[in-house]
Amino acid sequence: KIKNKKGDLLPSETLKIVIAVICIIFLVYLLVSLYYSLTDEQKRRQAEESMKSEHGLAREIERINMGGTSPEQGKLIPNPSGWYVLSFTEDKKPNSCLGKSCVCICENVVLNVFNWQERQINRCDNKGSCAIVQNLMKFEKIKIGNKGVHLSIRKINDWVEITKK
Predict the structure, then answer these.
(1) Is 158 exposed, middle or buried (0-12, 13-18, 19+ CB in 10 A)?
(2) Are 131 and 62 contacting, i.e. CB atoms less than 8 angstroms apart?
(3) Is-above-0.90 flag for pTM?
(4) Which residues 6+ apart lie within 8 Å of 131 measured at CB?
(5) pLDDT in tens, 85-103
(6) Which one of 23, 49, 94, 161 has the fewest beta carbons within 10 angstroms of its own beta carbon?
(7) What does the DSSP assignment read for 47-69?
């Protein structure tokens, strides 16, 4: 006699399929986590370079604070695209600012709801780059686009003003 086995799955075969699906999901999760970890580290290095290199934002602010003038086209911050230039002038600041006013390049916190300022400070502390700026005027966050962003940096009555050009 020939048995018709269509649609007849044994419990051991079902278990193998479930285990295979779980393994595939785990591998996809592992690959996605690894990808985001590498890109986050790359963007953090880009932020550090844009902030603290010889021609970075911190040096440009320091130069203007000492009496220099801002280039007419503004200071180009080329990357990391999608991140922001933020000011911290009030009570709560990243630890890297040592309690003083500072400017940071870091990723923006997505939801500006419950405790978002604290989360933004932690994000800048852990995954961004900050520089202390004496007499920094508070400014709205400035997004770094795909082609970067040009910033105007001026000294006005002993205060440093940073705006998008």
Answers:
(1) exposed
(2) no
(3) no
(4) 51, 52, 57, 58, 61, 102, 103, 104
(5) 999 998 888 988 888 899 9
(6) 23
(7) HHHHHHSTTSHHHHHHHHHTT--
